[in-house]
Amino acid sequence: MGFLQNACTFSVLSQDLLESCNPFDCGHNDLNEFFTYDSQNYSNQLLGKSYCFLLDENPKEIVCAFTISNDSIKTNFLPNNRKKRVNKEIPRVKHFKSYPAVLIGRLGVSSKYKKNGLGKELMDFIKSWFIDEENKTGCRFVVVDSYNEEIPLAYYQKNSFEFLFSSPEQEKEYMGLSKDYQLKTRLMYFDLIVLSPYD
Description:
Elements: H1 3-7, E1 8-12, H2 15-20, H3 29-44, E2 49-55, E3 58-74, H4 80-87, E4 98-109, H5 118-129, E5 141-147, H6 150-158, E6 162-163, H7 168-175, E7 185-191
Parallel strand pairs: 4-5
Antiparallel strand pairs: 1-2, 2-3, 3-4, 5-7, 6-7
């Protein structure tokens, strides 16, 4: 059992909780601002839900937080080589133009707890949610629009995520962006079937 399960309590990241807790700081201003100021509006507008783990010995301390929402991978927009890879393990491929996915919209681990393997532990927790017998919906993939920065890209790759497009140029082309445009994010995915007890 890991630190999150042994020393923390899982909770919805509500407005009341945010007001009672110490400020969350994961070392990334955009993420800090989202969790502090925008996550509640995002939830109120039914665009996604934010969750966190609180430290048991100090429930005012947010150890990590994440936001998830519904998404899909639309295979008809993918290049042929990636479409084949996504379709490879799925039966009756011709009947599907898109596959259900969950989007990790935001994810951050408090700067106080980084480098203790909590990032991997948190990702394992999120993945396990969607292969659980009590999961209420079908969800084949976990997707993320990762910041196009070395640390977050390396984090998702270490957690077995792959790029949806093999190069930034290919991603820009399929998104209809100019070649000169600097991608701020990269689309990545993880196939949950590798963890499924039914596989």
